[in-house]
Design goal:
Strand order of the largest sheet of chain A: 3-4-2-1-5-6-7
Radius of gyration of chain A: 18 Å
Number of helices of chain A: 9
Distance between the termini of chain B: 41 Å
Largest interface: A-B, 68 and 53 residues
Strand content of chain B: 25-35%
Strand content of chain A: 15-25%
Helix content of chain A: 25-40%
Structural class of chain B: alpha+beta
Helix content of chain B: 25-40%
Largest sheet of chain B: 6 strands, antiparallel
Radius of gyration of chain B: 26 Å
Distance between the termini of chain A: 23 Å
Structural class of chain A: alpha/beta
CATH class of the largest domain in chain A: Alpha Beta
Largest sheet of chain A: 7 strands, mixed
Order of helices and strands of chain A: EHEEEHEHEHEEEEHEHEHEHEH
Number of domains of chain B: 3
CATH topology of the largest domain in chain B: Rossmann fold
Oligomer: heterodimer
CATH superfamily of the largest domain in chain A: Succinyl-CoA synthetase domains
């Protein structure tokens, strides 16, 4: 089963004809993802290695039955691309683009969530989603993943790879790994994804990877206490991050007394969630619980 | 980007939010002239991007141009929490009846814009939030509809603003929201918003943070940025496309992805060391970028050892190895460089490093092992 993407995923890539779009779409396809279409305005009628390209998402959906979109367009066009995918009837929209203005995202997210049609938006500024053995949509390297019962949701890309790699090395596979991204206004947050994992019969345990900034980890901790029956293991990066310095991600900044890794770890542990002190320890705790 | 107070007020003025009349001065003579132009009694305020300037003596009242000049002389060049004062803002002084708090900010959790107002102004709002949370009125503005007048009324009545200030306070809120949205801000904080004895309501301070991702649609942002001083190493790094922040330790850090680099800083600390910097080469870094990163890190004399921690996704480890080898050939490397490669083309990269033996180039298999090694090497000779 897994969550968000799987065997039923029919993928359209917005920005397929670009350098990064074509490179990663090809890797996703080689992994086994059903890549059905690309969209680049003005290039409709052409193809990229046999995948048909359309001028609009609406056209791509009506011609190919695409139900998931991967957004690879430049930042200033990304919110528009998300709205287009949503209004064309796409069910899962995954936006990799980094550097989208936050207020563009606030409007796009309000539209997608406000429409009430259950569409999932993941990202922007995220590595994508992989359901090992089923489908890979985005830029997560498929080789480091393996099939199994652990769900993972993370605000950071490479940190996800590090933890997935350590899990795989310990023989612990994953149901789905979801990168929700490091932006201030994310399409989906921890609680959105935890809700899906709680209902997914292939997921037995969930790893939550957070970082400094905001209060998403604290909210997830509080929510989980009341709503999750499956165990959670967590990690929070940035224990040593200084106040007032934005650590790479637009959302990763400690301001005043808020958003510190220490406060997040305390909130998670207060909700009965075990927190690893480094990525290796996270994998060890997961292996111990599964063992 | 955080704006200076005077820049924030210029922005508010454009949107017709009332701010005190004022001028910027960079020396005592300019301060004197500004005070003369403003009619004598003024406030001289240090322009720094850090809180607590009042307590540090960075705000002074002057009752005539001579006093303004000497106040500017005292404040200019002052070091406030590591920020040296280069400019002062001279503003016409008035009599304040009441101080309030008003702000708009991006709310990550609700994914919209949050307006906050309190009758308790002029003090740290986080303190108010802790000691007296009910003293803060909060209103979420729907991103697709924008602000309505009732939002302004909810804030003003909710915060219990004095009757004498209500009408003008309500009138200020919609333009302040427009300033926020049309400038792509992530924070506009007016603390305090004041009621003057004249009955006017005025933004006495302005803290504005703009969203760097929206630079492209605000050409004048670059003008605002030119007033900001960036340390040489950070400026160089930015030019090369690297995300760099200077820290206080002696272990230089290079990694890919913000989360992994933050995690690397944490494991270095846990291993008993302190990182000299945060440096994220980003996704898909090539050989040249890596080589440049090593050059910038090792140009810092405080650095006693370097830790390169790469997990290749889009980034290819063979290109990372190529960049490291290039830096060793190009630079007079004096400190050990511990390298840990995993992910895309890691084996190839590790082999390239093994084939280029240099006693200062050390390969480690795991992130934790590499951190311990780098810390041990940085401490060697100092213990």
């Amino acid at each position: 089963m897994a969550i968000l993407i799987g065997r039923d995923t029919r993928l359209v890539v917005q920005g397929l004809t670009g350098r990064e779009g074509s490179f990663h779409a090809k890797r996703n396809q080689e992994y086994g993802t059903d890549l059905v279409a690309g969209v680049t305005p003005g290039k409709g009628g052409s193809d990229v290695s046999g995948t048909p390209v359309f001028d609009t998402v609406e056209r791509a959906v009506s011609e190919t039955g695409a139900n998931a979109a991967l957004v690879f367009v430049p930042p200033r066009f990304a919110a528009d691309a998300i709205l287009e995918a949503h209004d064309a009837g796409i069910e899962v929209i995954i936006a990799v683009t980094e550097g989208v203005p936050a207020l563009d995202m606030a409007r796009a997210v309000a539209h997608v969530r406000g429409s009430g049609n259950g569409v999932y938006l993941i990202g922007p500024n995220c590595p994508g989603v992989i359901s090992p053995g089923l489908a890979n949509v985005g830029i997560i390297p498929g080789e480091i993943c393996s099939e199994g019962p652990v769900g993972l949701v993370s605000r950071s890309g490479t940190l996800t790879y590090q933890i997935v790699h350590e899990l795989t090395q310990k023989g612990v596979g994953q149901s789905t790994c979801v990168g929700i991204g490091g932006d201030p206004i994310p399409g989906s947050n921890f609680i959105d994804i935890l809700t899906l994992f709680e209902d997914d019969q292939d997921t037995e345990l969930v790893v939550v990877v957070g970082e400094i900034g905001g209060d998403a980890e604290e909210r997830a901790a509080e929510w989980s206490k009341a709503n999750m029956t499956k165990p959670i293991v967590a990690y929070v990066a940035g224990l040593t991050a200084p106040e007032g310095k934005r650590m790479g991600h637009a959302g990763a900044i400690v301001s005043g007394s808020k958003g510190t890794a220490k406060a997040k770890i305390e909130a998670l542990e207060g909700a009965g969630i075990r927190v690893g002190r480094n990525p290796t320890e996270v994998a060890e705790i997961v292996a111990e619980i599964k063992g | 980007m955080d704006l200076f107070e005077y820049q924030g007020k210029e922005l508010l003025r454009k949107f017709e939010v009332p701010v005190p009349e004022g001028r910027v001065a960079t020396n005592p003579d300019e301060a004197r002239a500004a005070a003369e132009g403003l009619g004598g009694k003024v406030v001289v305020k240090a322009q720094v991007q850090v809180g607590g300037r009042g307590k540090a003596g960075g705000i002074k009242l002057a009752s005539n141009p001579d006093e303004a000049s000497s106040a500017a002389e005292q404040i200019l060049g002052m070091d406030i929490k590591g920020h040296v004062v280069k400019r002062v803002l001279i503003e016409r002084a008035g009599i304040i009846e009441s101080e309030y708090y008003l702000s708009f900010l991006l709310d990550r959790s609700e994914r919209d814009v949050l307006g906050m107002m309190s009758a308790k102004g002029g003090i740290d709002i986080e303190e108010v939030a802790e000691t007296d949370p009910d003293a803060i009125a909060r209103v979420h503005i729907p991103p697709l509809l924008g602000i309505s007048d009732f939002h302004a009324r909810e804030l003003v009545f909710g915060a219990g603003i004095d009757a004498a200030a209500r009408k003008e306070a309500i009138a200020i809120i919609p333009p302040l929201y427009r300033a926020f949205v049309e400038s792509d801000a992530s924070l506009i904080e007016v603390n305090p918003l004041v009621l003057m004895d004249t009955g006017r309501v005025v933004a006495l301070d302005a803290k504005v943070t703009l969203d760097d991702s929206a630079d492209y649609r605000h050409p004048y942002f670059s003008e605002l940025k030119s007033a900001h001083e960036v340390p040489e190493q950070e400026r160089l790094a930015k030019e090369k496309g690297l995300n760099f922040i200077k820290l206080q330790g002696d272990v230089g850090i290079i990694g890919n992805g913000a989360g992994l680099v933050m995690s690397t800083l944490d494991v270095v600390k846990a291993a008993g060391g302190d990182s000299a910097n945060f440096l994220d080469v980003g996704g898909g870094a090539g050989a040249e970028l890596l080589s440049n990163a090593l050059e910038i890190i090792t140009s810092d004399k405080a650095v006693k050892a370097v830790l390169v921690n790469i997990f290749g996704g889009i980034t290819r480890c063979d290109l990372v190895a190529e960049g490291i080898i290039d830096a060793f050939g190009r630079l007079d490397m004096k400190v050990p460089v511990v390298v840990r490669l995993d992910g895309t083309n890691a084996e190839q990269g590790r082999k390239m490093l093994a084939d280029a033996p240099d006693e200062l180039l050390i390969a480690e298999k795991t992130m934790l092992g590499a951190a311990e090694k780098a810390v041990a090497l940085a401490h060697r000779g100092t213990d």
